[in-house]
Amino acid sequence: MNTDITWLPNHLLKDIDLPKVITEENIGQNYGGYYTQGTKNITIVYSDIIASTITHEFCHYLQNVQGRSIKPSKWEIESTYEKSIKEYFLGNINEFEALLFEYKYAKDYLNEWWLRKLVME
Q1: How large is the angle between the packed helices 50-65 and 93-105, nearest 10 degrees?
Q2: What's the CA angle centered on 8, arms 47 and 108, to 5 degrees?
Q3: What digits encode the pLDDT tens for the residues 55-68?
């Protein structure tokens, strides 16, 4: 698996220290990755959507580098998966921005589904 982030567009990488991508084995975590706020560490879980996960968490890293406040978010399924996804992304501007960012730079079946079927409907 390639965890290098230099495939991202150069304008995103310009004038910043690049974060370190740490990988975890997939043991059934309820997350695909996370950025540890205030650090240079992005952690991702092995899956078939590595690029979008890296891109999503890289957006959170950029939010931090730019000095923007990142509201902590916790993923929980409270009723249906679909309703929980909608509430998660629409209830946290940082997460919604990261979803749009990953869709733009690493579009895949999952982020497209989240946007088209869950968030925008």
Answers
A1: 130
A2: 40
A3: 999 999 999 999 88
Q: Are 60 and 36 contacting, i.e. CB atoms less than 8 angstroms apart?
A: no
Among the listed residues 114, 107, 7, 11, the one whose alpha carbon sits nearest the alpha carbon of residue 53: 107
CB–CB of 98/59 below 8 Å?
Answer: yes
In terms of residues, how long is the chain?
Answer: 121
Global pTM exceeds 0.85: yes
- Which distant-in-sequence residues (6+ apart) come within 8 Å of 24 by Cβ? 43, 44, 45, 46
Strand order in the sheet with 41-45: 20-24, 41-45, 33-35
Residue ranges covered by each domain of the chain = 10-119
State both tokens at 109.
């079946």
Condensed to tens digits (0 to 9), the pLDDT of residues 14-29 reads 999 999 999 999 998 8
Q: Which one is predicted more confidently, 40 or 75?
A: 40
